Prior knowledge:
- The structure is a single chain.
- This protein is an all-alpha fold.
- The protein contains twelve helices and no strands.
- It has helices at residues 2-8, 13-35, 42-70, 73-80, 83-95, 101-118, 130-150, 159-179, 190-218, 220-223, 230-240, 248-265.
- Helix 3 runs antiparallel to helix 7.
Amino acid sequence: xxxxxILNAGVPPMTxxxxxxxxxxxxxxxxxxxxxxxxxxxxxxxxxxxxxGLLGVTVYFFFEARGIKLTTxxxxxxxxxxxxxxxxxxxxxxxxxxxSWLAALGIAISVxxxxxxxxxxxxKLATGSLVGDLFxxxxxLSWVVxxxxxxxLHKRLSEIAITAYQSLFGTLFMIPLALLERSxxxxxTLVSGLNLAYLALFCSALSNFLYVYALSRLGPIVISPxxxxxxxxxxxxxxxxxxxxxxxGQVVGGVLIIGGVLAVNW
Length: 266
């Protein structure tokens, strides 16, 4: 909802993301220097962090912003819901990870839950744009590669160092894209500025830190189904904040997603 508010105020998408992660970097680096004043990631560390920032911030949001604009919300949600599936496949192919039947079942159940959330029985699923769907698929794949690149960084670096440097590199790679939108720049209003601050603090700095922390402790397969909880939270936010009505299909979808996540963790 915050992103939509900012975009509706006229702020271009890449500019919004660049400001968001720039502010997050400003918040994270003083904390990093306070906790780890002598940190030196090293050449290989910098390369891995730069790759993570490029894929997890710049490339992901580049694809996502265009995908959401060109396709339907339901198509976008369903494609992003495939992240756990692609993660499992990538883990099995590139790392030889053995996937338990319960984990595979849980991931399948969570994807089915997203389908219930975005498609209500009796209603025709809106047709999306092929180009928009392909952009969303690009976002999905870039996030999976980001997860695989970042999963072992905690062996050399702390979670806050990973988050801070990836936010910084993501911002640096995003700046040229934001400059291409220069003709569309508008002054920030108080409302859009407060929403940007919220995104930077909670959705970039804090949530990315928690995601990296969970990734280092639990691994890609366990944490990837949690992505499918995002539409559940969005639906609950719409009900509690915007007063939207809750359909029975959304209830079923939410239960399936939560059940799938629990199955994977089990």
